From TrEMBL:
DNA-binding region boundaries: 34-53
Keyword line: DNA-binding
Species in which this protein is naturally found: Solitalea longa
Domain of life: Bacteria
A molecular-function term among this protein's GO annotations: DNA binding
Descriptive protein name: TetR family transcriptional regulator
SUPFAM superfamilies named among the record's database cross-references: Homeodomain-like, Tetracyclin repressor-like, C-terminal domain
InterPro entries: Homeodomain-like_sf, HTH-type_TetR-like_transc_reg, HTH_TetR, Tet_transcr_reg_TetR-rel_C_sf, Tscrpt_reg_YsiA_C
Every HTH tetR-type domain range: 11-71
Amino acid sequence: MAKKEVKAIDSSTEERIKLAAHKLFAQKGYAGTKTRDIASEAGINLALLNYYFRSKEKLFELIMREHIQQFFQGMFQVLNDENTSIQQKIETLVSRYVDTLMLKPDIPIFVLSELRNSPMNLAENIQKNMQIKNSYFMKQIKEGISNGTIDNIHPVQLMSNLISLTVFPFIANPILKTIHGIDQEQFNTFMLERKKLIPLWIAEIIKPKTTINK
C-alpha cells in the first residue's frame, strides 16, 4: 500500500514539474528559463527537481517530445477523416500548425535539433503517430490524380510545400522580425494572415493544369 502511495506522489510531483516547465518555457523560451524558476513555479526545491529530471535540457526534451507526439497524433486524425475534402484537410492542417506553433514556438527548433542528432528516431516517431502513407488523405490524393480533379503532383511535393510554407516563418522568426522591423505581436498577425493564404496557395498548386493547344 505504501509503495502505491509513493508512486502516486511521485507521479503528481513529476506532472507539477512538467506543467511548471511548460509554462515558463512558453513565456521565456528555453534560454530564459532557469531551473530554480521551474522549481519555484512547481512549489518544490531545486534538489527535488534535479532528482526527477537531472537537468533543464532533459526536462525540455521530454516536454517537446510529448508535444510533438500529441501534435502528430492530432494531425493523423485530420488526415484520416473520411468526412472532409482534401481542401478542408489542408485548411485544418495549416490552422492547427499555426495555432500550435504560436503557442509552442520552440517546437521547430527542437525538431531541427532532433533531425541533426537522431534523424531516424524522429522519422520513425512521425511515421508511427501519423501513418501518412496509409491515411485517407493519401487515398483522396491518388483518387484525385486518377480522375483528373487535382494535378498529378507527388504527395511528397504536396506535404513539403504545406509544411515549409507553414513552419519556415517560425524558424526564421528572429530574421523576419529584424529585417522587417516588426515585433512579436505583428509577427503573430502576419502568421494569422498566412493561415488564410496558405490553403489558397496550395489549392492553386494542386489545381489541374490545362493544356494550351498552339
